[in-house]
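Fold these two proteins, one after the other.
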Amino acid sequence: MKVVLYGATGKSGSRILTELTSRGHQVVAVARNTASLPAGVEAVQDDLSDVARIAATVKGADAVVSAYAPPQDDTDQVIGVTERQVAALSYPGSPRLIVVGGAASLEVAPGVTLLASGHLPQEWVAIASSHAKALDLLKASSIDWTYFSPAAFFVPGERTGKFRLGTDTLIADEKHDSRISLEDYAIALVDELETPKHRRARFTIGY
């Protein structure tokens, strides 16, 4: 499978790149700065600012993964990036888009999201709000999208292959700890690419 991976040098993107290449997929790794990408990977420099450039990069791909992370002081950039990705993928036969999303739009009680619950730390509210708006853009689009929300704590860790999947409810353990490693998240994302189960839908992961 030929996969275009945006944000390939980031925390989640670098793990997804490793998982994709370890399974034999052909990856076009896209980043603002490609210097740290591993040798042998097709690298493309792009900042996701131009629809035509995005469209040219994804042409001929089987799928697109967006692990784009906006700057902390301007989190709404993820909204503009999502708009441009949707525009670039709005032609017939365009590849599928899987987005590395946020957790705060997941429900923690019936009809109550983590963002709306009041329990989200203030420093996370801006990025959570931006990601929720990006998800709304995908839902309103006509493209073949999947939005993959991590657990509340999305951190480096072990590649265990043991996790639970869900749809719109935050996954937590019996101690109310909602957590997933970047490595296990990458496994589940590539599983979804290889065997699609959540087209035009959101799903989530946790231990």
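Now the second one:
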Amino acid sequence: MTTVQPFLMFSGQAEEAMRFYVDTFDQAEINELHKYGMGQSGKEGTVQQGVFSIHGQTILCMDSTLDQPFTFTPSFSLFITCDQESELNRVFDSLSEGGEILMPMDHYPFSKKFGWVNDRFGVSWQLSL
């Protein structure tokens, strides 16, 4: 085994999600973006393979070529630790816009400030100071 990386499968929104995450987080970038072309197995223009990174953590993604009977679940989430409260608040506000707040930003026994949100794409994020 050489690596373990998160992998996100979208239903036609992978590029939009990648660009949203890169805009939301500091030190984030799209590393690779390969799209399906005409006559390939996926819908033309959707993401065949996407790679982006947030603070050095590589995340893979794609748009499914099939309609799937499932989507994201909060039982798997990306956990982000922020050094600055202002960054934590900014990221939480951005990710929760159009999404669903699972645990509001607050003080909890396990963190002086923590929030949990499903973003507008259904991806679950836990954010801690």
